[in-house]
């Protein structure tokens, strides 16, 4: 008799994440073990986005399913993982994060009300400084106003398909566009996006490590205007920030 399909499919887009992926997978293993439906109710999919450092081999050794996605695009990687997913609920998390022990039960409770079309767990950060804290504070009003957050982003599989998944024409902000599409779908049904703050993920601060703790104010806030008036410079910034050649 075939095994029942999993409740969750957790998709991890990854490009050259051999160094940090084990840390995430350790946290996922702990959360699976703590899940009330049992560890087998969660499948883990690493969407390997043309890595050259053995990321896919490491993921296979750790018991993950691997989706090979050759196009270097974060949206394409997320969609590639979703295409092979078997779960009723899809979750997406960055490879340099760690998830909370109670992630899967917390998401189950949020969806069980019937009032949520999807949402995210939110995050705390692995280190803090004045620049990082002010960046976090600058972003929170938008989170409060829209209900959109980061961390483990989740929705029902059928709703992912209704909104068409992640927009692969976008090199950046594909996660924002996806949550906006989910929010529009939910509004038509009387549902909303939810923030599952009891199970916040821990987000990496490596972009701050690489670009400086104040770079959000010096670079990221200027990026929308740069895209209009200096598109080539904006493209170079996007490549350097989101698509560095080594990871």
Overview of the molecule:
It contains eleven helices and nine strands. It is globular, with a radius of gyration of 18 Å. It has 247 residues and is α/β, with parallel strands linked by helices. The strands form two sheets. Strands 3-2-1-4-7-5-8 form a seven-stranded mixed sheet, sandwiched between helices. The protein has a single domain, classed as Spore Coat Polysaccharide Biosynthesis Protein SpsA, Chain A, CATH 3.90.550.
User: Helix proportion of residues, in percent?
Assistant: 40-55%
SS class? alpha/beta
Q: What gross morphology would you assign?
A: globular
User: What's the CATH first level?
Assistant: Alpha Beta
Spatial order of the strands in the main sheet?
Answer: 3-2-1-4-7-5-8
* Beta-strand share of residues: 15-25%
- Quantity of strands, as a count: 9
* CATH fold assignment: Spore Coat Polysaccharide Biosynthesis Protein SpsA, Chain A
**Terminal-residue CA separation:** 42 Å
Count of the domains: 1
Number of helices, counting only DSSP H or I runs of 4 residues or more: 11
Q: Using only CA atoms, what is the Rg? A: 18 Å
**CATH architecture grouping:** Alpha-Beta Complex
Which whole number gives the mean pLDDT?
Answer: 96
CATH superfamily: Spore Coat Polysaccharide Biosynthesis Protein SpsA, Chain A
Low-confidence stretches: none
Largest sheet, in brief, is: 7 strands, mixed
